[in-house]
Amino acid sequence: MNFRNRVKIISRISLAMVVVLFLLSCAQSEFKAIRFGLSSAPLTLDPRYSTDAASTRIIRLLYLQLTDFNQQVLPSPALAKWSKLSPTHYRFRLGEKGRNFHNGERLNAEDVKATYDSVLDPATASPHKQSLDIVKSIRIINKDTVDFILHRPDSAFPGYLVIGIMPKALLNTNHDFVKSPIGSGPFRFHAWPDSSLLKLTRLRDNQAFVFLHVENATTRVLKLIKGEIDIVQNDIPGELVKHLETFYKIKVQHHLGSNFSYMSFNFRNPHLKKIEVRRAIAHAIDRRKIVKYFFGKKTKLASAIFSPEHWAGHKNLLSYDYNPAKARKLLAQAGYNKENPLELTYKTTNKPFRVRIATVLQHQLAQVGIKIKLRTYEWATFYDDIQKGNFHLYSLTWVGVKSPDIFRTVYHSSSIPDSEKKKFGWKTFRADLLKGFVHLGSLVWSSINSVATQREIYKSLSLPILNRKNSGKNRNAYRDEVADYLIELAEKESNRHRRIAHFYKIHERLIERLPVIPLWYEEHMAATRSNIFAYTLTADGNYDSLVNVVKLKPGEKVPATFANYRLKQKKQATIKVKKFVPMEFSDPDSDPVKSKSNSRKKDKVIIHVPTAIPKSNLSPDKSNDLKTDTAIMPKIRETSKADAKKLEKPLKLLPVKSKKENDNNPKIEKRKSISNEIVKQKNKLTLPKAKDSSKTKPLNATPATPSELAK
Fold it and tell me: Cα–Cα–Cα angle for 207, 213, 218, nearest 5°?
């Protein structure tokens, strides 16, 4: 073999080795990436424009803000600490943490001023401008200190400064922050090749994160089971959540939520202007039953935008109960009957889970004589209609609401978008004419000044009338002078206790006038693979815990900090597989709250029977995806018909009384005999395996939760 052939062979072998090493490194990096399944793709990564939940939660990873909120939902320092120099003068001093942008520049006071100047600029058209209109001016004291001067006193002002800080140099050059964000947060932007795939990198260890948009809930769950996704959160139907809880390699956790779901009315509609109609709709909706069958156990009924646990929430506020008879009576008072029915349109997104809830609402309203036409749209089209006021009824959820400025933004008449308030007249004509002259002056200056100078001149010449453009979120055009007065009174109040008293009155006024129907605070649910550690849920459902998440490789040892947690998971899984723990038998039509509280009482004996998820509980569009083989659906163990008849209703015993009260009591012997009979029945009860599951009828009981199985 000559020298040339040897060189060719060696080069080919080395090339093959390089290819193999490259493929192995790709496979390793692909495994190492933590993949997060999203039900909705983020719309923007620019903190000035984020309004949807996915965008807001991811932006918190990329940017840091001046202030944040602590566990008591009170403003707390983030990038800066503040001091109150006067009721309308706040000074913020930047700390040392989070001061480096991802492009290498240092964050300073000029970046803070440039960010908030951009949000307040009418030309930016930021949806957050309304909540910051209280700012009169921003002054730079030095590179680490910035002052905010307000139009009016507001003791909650520090909680308004939650916009991510952006570099001034890039803001002046109109950098595209929507698709290429540059912040100072714990994560750095890597790539966003299409709307369904977003890649971020964690700064402290270069851990790769991939956010995948998988709209269909069943597909998202199957990808999690197969290992194609590591984490999913929320927007998964209850039957799929229970299905996930049966897998040893899947960890499911639940958390109380604070996100406020509501149904909104359009006050431009002559029918919905009537308070009787709004109250009739509120009484016609059986919220308790919807929560029971569609949401998790930690979902709570709502009566206001803030939960009772919030410092500004109302602790004793009552909402509208389910009362169809009262709803029909109110409709009759408003002039509607079978000959003259009330017809309305309800809009929602085209997500299957939301469509199912909308269908239930349609059915419940039809029971009292209200005809509802359902209209489903893609999110962008749906949200555009809501912003334009093109609706009768719709439902949405306020995500991450923590500051009481939401009252002005949503319920104050000054927050009605301009398109609804603007009327032709001399004042409007004069304002537009004056605005035209200012624009003309800015064009003259453009030939000799920079873009930044033009913006400063425009702002200095602008009169209050020129800042009429309003991006408020009072989209249903709710006008109430009493509510306006109470909101303004609460904003001016500096005493904390008196301010909370004003918020109480605001809550009571809103539940009386019903600009929206409070529905529920949805619980948060997260499911992760067994090799994912340290992912935790919060009340607002943010993704902040991704900063600490760890993903173990196959065969890698569990870190000492997670050893106890892993041992606990193993014990629960062993119990789940090898030992079937019986659960409480409950009446499906009973009140879930009452049944839960009654089950703890000593005077109630509950006979336990096992059950599982019947296939009939799955919706038609999901039943085909979840096949009944042992790898996907849990094994169903059922009692015989004879045992089921004996256990139709739980037996109640009389409360235990003192000896003096028990003397000469004829019911004592009867109670003892009943107790003895129950013991005999429990001893006789057997749970045979059904040879043919089609011949037995499953009992209508709820499946066991992991906490119950662990016991």
Answer: 115
Q: In the prediction, which pLDDT does 5 show?
A: 66
Q: Estimate the crossing angle of helix 324-333 against helix 275-284, to 10 degrees.
A: 160
Quick one: pLDDT at residue 697?
38
Which single residue is written with the structure tokens 């206001």?
Answer: 304
State the Cα–Cα distance between residues 393 and 398, nearest whole angstrom: 16
Distance in angstroms (rounded) separating the CA atoms of residues 28 and 26 = 5
b/e per residue 453-477 (b: at least 16 CB within 10 A): eebebbeeeeeeebeeebbbbbbbb
pLDDT in tens, 319-334: 899 999 999 999 999 9
Exposure of 213 in the CB half-sphere (CA atoms within 13 A): 13
- Distance, CA of 409 to chain centre: 19
Closest CA to 308 of 319, 292, 323, 294: 319
- Residue-wise pLDDT tens digits, 119-175: 999 999 898 888 898 999 999 999 999 999 999 888 889 999 999 999 999 999 989
CA-to-CA distance for 549 and 231, rounded, in angstroms?
Answer: 11
646-650 long-range contacts, CB within 8 A, separation 24+ = 646/681, 647/585, 647/607, 647/609, 647/699, 649/587, 650/585, 650/586, 650/604, 650/605, 650/606, 650/607
Give the pLDDT confidence score for residue 4 in this predicted structure.
63
Closest CA to 585 of 504, 643, 654, 657: 643
Q: Under DSSP, is residue 686 helix (H, G, I), strand (E, B) or coil? A: coil
At residue 106, what is the residue type? R
Q: Which of 455, 406, 438, 463 is nearest to 113 (CA)?
A: 455
Per-residue b or e along 387-398, where b marks 16 or more CB atoms closer than 10 Å to that residue's CB? eebebbbbbbeb
Dihedral angle sign, alpha carbons of residues 565, 571, 576, 580: negative
Per-residue model confidence as pLDDT tens digits over 598-630 = 333 333 333 233 333 333 333 333 333 333 333
- The three-point CA angle 118-120-125 to 5° equals 80
Instruction: Please give the DSSP secondary-structure letter assigned to residue 705.
Output: P
Which of 310-314, 338-342, 550-554, 687-691 comes out lowest in average pLDDT? 687-691
Residues in a beta bridge with 34: 209
- Separation CA 470–CA 201 (nearest Å): 37
Q: What does the alpha-carbon distance between residue 671 and residue 652 come to, in Å, rounded to a whole number?
A: 10
* CA 161 from centroid of its chain's CA atoms: 21
Question: What is the C-alpha separation between 199 and 358, in angstroms, rounded?
Answer: 34
